[in-house]
Specification:
It is a single chain. The protein is α+β, with helices and mostly antiparallel strands. It has one domain: Beta-Lactamase. The chain is built from 4 helices and 4 strands, in the order αββααββα. A hairpin with a 4-residue loop joins strand 1 and strand 2.
């Protein structure tokens, strides 16, 4: 019989809370959205700061989805695509994105548990930094 580790709602909400707290350290930042998905890309937890734009919300979900499905941080996925001379369109999945700001959530044994995505800041690097705060808060 197989057993499968899963993210709990409590873990995911704690990660969202940690990302919001980190975001709030700099009140001059643009509004963001944050999402956590399971290993199949299904949404577990989502939040957006006040006045976050629609594209930030859509992109954070796509970033989390891509990290989970591709079992890779989105920045690494984008680099692989570039090295192969391909684009996300080649995969045929409109939910995939090559935008930085998605991080994969791995079990200690290396299996994927899901992904975290953050969107809305001017650079993907800043989005990824906040996503990593959430990853740390999961306590894996």
């Amino acid at each position: 019989m197989y057993t499968k580790s899963m993210l709990s709602l409590d873990q995911c909400q704690a990660a969202i809370t940690a990302m919001i707290a980190d975001y709030n350290k700099d009140t001059s930042r643009r509004p963001i959205a944050m999402a956590i998905v399971d290993d199949t890309g299904n949404l577990i937890s989502f939040a957006r700061t006040d006045r976050a734009r629609l594209m930030a919300a859509r992109n954070c979900i796509k970033k989390a989805y891509t990290a989970a499905i591709m079992v890779s941080d989105t920045v690494d996925y984008a680099a692989r695509l570039k090295d192969q001379g391909r684009t996300v369109a080649d995969a045929g999945d409109p939910m995939l994105t090559a935008l930085q700001g998605g991080v994969v959530i791995l079990n200690p044994d290396g299996t994927a548990l899901g992904g975290i995505g953050v969107g809305g800041l001017p650079t993907g690097v800043a989005d990824e930094e906040i996503a990593r705060v959430g990853l740390q808060a999961l306590g894996l």
